[in-house]
UniProtKB/TrEMBL annotation:
This is Phosphotransferase family protein. Residues 21-212 form the Aminoglycoside phosphotransferase domain. It holds the Pfam family APH. InterPro entries: AGP_Transferase, Aminoglycoside_PTrfase, Kinase-like_dom_sf.
Length: 243
């Protein structure tokens, strides 16, 4: 009998694995609808949808393994990291999805709210928050929207050898800044930034990409704490940004 593995679970949703099938349980059907629609539009490999019976979405397992895990060294090759960069480029060159995503103004309001909470609740030192908030300003300039994954972290990219076999978790896909995806991909894996940029090709504004590291980390700490996850990788990124 195959065992049920809890891949991830928190207050909003859960993902279970039974053999070669992933079961995503999400009570927010609008978010699930958006994920299904984004996978249909994406020009890069995604899991096959086996069936859907709300609130459950059944997906096939992808071959290979994750590019990495948050907070842990990646054992994937430089070529695999470059392939992830190339996959991001292909996505960003695709026609825009219908979801508009966050505007710079909305992100500024949300970021300021999160920073105020982090300081008021003594979650992080005030100086660490304020200095990273200043760094994040560079990411809040107007951008040309592209098709973004929205949460292109290493655990959502599967590779086999030096090739990308698929990308998971499209619930945050929307129009956005290409550098947001590249920052998510390299967050806490800065040693692979050059590989990703080489695979992505073209000019990449590294200062703005690093600004997205600060912005993403500041915005996600409260969510991680509230849902029982350790924000250590994000805090280490914020600390490293000061040097």
């Amino acid at each position: 009998m195959e065992e049920v593995e809890v891949v991830v679970a928190h207050h909003e949703r859960a993902t279970l694995r039974v053999g070669d099938v992933f079961l995503k349980v999400d009570t927010d059907q609008a978010r699930a609808d958006a994920e299904v629609a984004a996978m249909a539009l994406a020009p890069i490999p995604t899991p096959e949808i086996l069936w859907r019976k709300p609130p459950v979405l059944a997906l096939s397992a992808l071959p290979g393994r994750e590019l990495g895990r948050p907070g842990k060294p990646s054992t994937a090759s430089s070529a695999a990291w470059a392939a992830a960069g190339a996959a991001a480029r292909k996505l960003h060159e695709a026609p825009l999805p219908p979801a508009p995503g966050w505007s710079p103004g909305q992100l500024t309001e949300d970021l300021d709210r999160e920073c105020a909470w982090l300081i008021a609740n003594d979650v992080l030192p005030a100086e660490l928050v304020t200095r990273n908030r200043r760094i994040a300003d560079a990411a809040l300039q107007p951008w040309t929207p592209v098709f973004t994954h929205g949460d292109l972290q290493v655990a959502h990219i599967f590779v086999e050898g030096d090739e990308v076999t698929g990308v998971l978790d499209w619930s945050e896909a929307a129009q956005g800044d290409a550098l947001f995806d590249l920052a998510a991909l390299t967050l806490a894996h800065q040693e692979h930034l050059a590989d990703v940029v080489a695979g992505y090709g073209g000019d990449v504004d590294l200062d703005r990409l690093r600004a997205w590291w600060s912005l993403r980390s500041l915005r996600v700490v409260r969510w991680l704490v509230d849902h029982g996850f350790d924000p250590k990788p994000e805090v280490e990124v914020l600390e490293a940004q000061l040097f």
